[in-house]
Amino acid sequence: MTTTTRYILKKLSPCPDCDGIGVLAHPKWRRYHDWHDAYRESHHNCSPSDDATNTWWSENGYYLNSRPDLPPQEIACYTCSGTGKLEQDIDLRSALTALGINITYSNLQP
Ligand SMILES: [Zn+2]
């Protein structure tokens, strides 16, 4: 049995889902901002009143009197678990090719 040594590198890339910052807007806050933006667009760029805002939150399970219970505005990214990076094992040939280095040695097997 012949064994060969393979070199594996770690490729760290910025997470595409959070652009490398590790956090995402909470889904409820994303919907709130979408509603807020749509409201302004349909009301000549005026922001919703406090009453309209409170109504939106109460219709979505939150109440003004319990504002501290609102969800956090940001949550850890699901894709990268909040690290902002994606880690991937790649072989040496792939790494060199990605760096623009063309290797033709036959002992570098993929
Ligand atoms: Zn991420």
Condensed summary:
The protein is built from three helices and four strands, in the order ββααββα. By secondary structure, the protein is an alpha+beta fold.
Describe the overall structure.
The chain is α+β, with helices and mostly antiparallel strands and 110 residues long. It has one domain. Helices cover 30% and strands 18% of the residues. It contains 3 helices and 4 strands, in the order ββααββα. The protein has a two-stranded antiparallel sheet with strand order 1-4. A two-stranded antiparallel sheet has the order 2-3. The chain is elongated and about 75 Å long. The mean pLDDT is 88. Zinc ion (ZN) binds next to loops.
Indicate the percent of residues in helices. Answer: 25-40%
Instruction: Give the strand line-up of the largest sheet.
Output: 1-4
Shape: elongated
Largest sheet, in brief, is: 2 strands, antiparallel
User: Ends: how far apart?
Assistant: 19 Å
Number of helical segments with 4 or more residues: 3
Characterize the quaternary organization of these chains: single chain
**What pattern of helices and strands is seen along the backbone?**
EEHHEEH
What is the total domain count?
1
* Small molecules bound: zinc ion
The overall average pLDDT, rounded, is 88
Provide the gyration radius in Å.
Answer: 24 Å
Beta-strand percent range: 15-25%
Contiguous low-pLDDT stretches (5 residues minimum) are: none
Give the total of beta strands.
4
Structural class: alpha+beta
